[in-house]
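Running log. JK asked me to keep both predictions on one page so they can be read side by side. First protein, sequence followed by its tokens:
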Amino acid sequence: MDGIILLITLASIAVPVLLTYLYRRTLSPVRNHKEPVTLSPGYKTLVAVCAILPVAGAAGMDVLEDIVDIDELWFVLFPAAIIMCGIVTDAILIWARRSKWLLLLALPYIAISALSAAIIIYMLIMTFDQHPRMF
């Protein structure tokens, strides 16, 4: 039982870090720009929206549960939170090239994406197990 919890913990931390790394290497528009100032306004708007939505969703989870049935739409909400947190983490890593203190801003997004990955793993266990139970 302790091994399963350790495996879920490691996976929930590794998945967001790996997805952020893959995003940075493949899809991130920052590869073509030397400075974050030269990025397009559309990308800056995307980063701002992606910075607000996961934090607002995490802070207002009880309100979100009243609006959206999380038990039915978990396969959309939590992967979207991981993707948005990866985009924001990538942007923070770009802006933290000169000031390493800005890296502290990435910690809440890494925590939100790690918790989202853990919830996805838990919900997959609950979905595919015929007799759902706590570990």
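And the second, directly underneath as requested:
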Amino acid sequence: MPDQSKNENIRSQRRLIIEMIEASMQLAMEKGPHPLTPGCSCIACVNKRKRKLSGPPKPWRYRL
């Protein structure tokens, strides 16, 4: 039975992550386009913060 409780725990964690993403997307739709706002947890501001922290994108090493 330990495997079943472990699987249920993983499912609940995944469900929580999906709910958080959906909530941040809903907030972005409600707010509409806006500049990067401190403390804003909409998906647009989260992505802007992530890009700002990670710096410019690195050149891709592969060619198609």
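Observation for JK regarding the second prediction: The chain has two helices and no strands.
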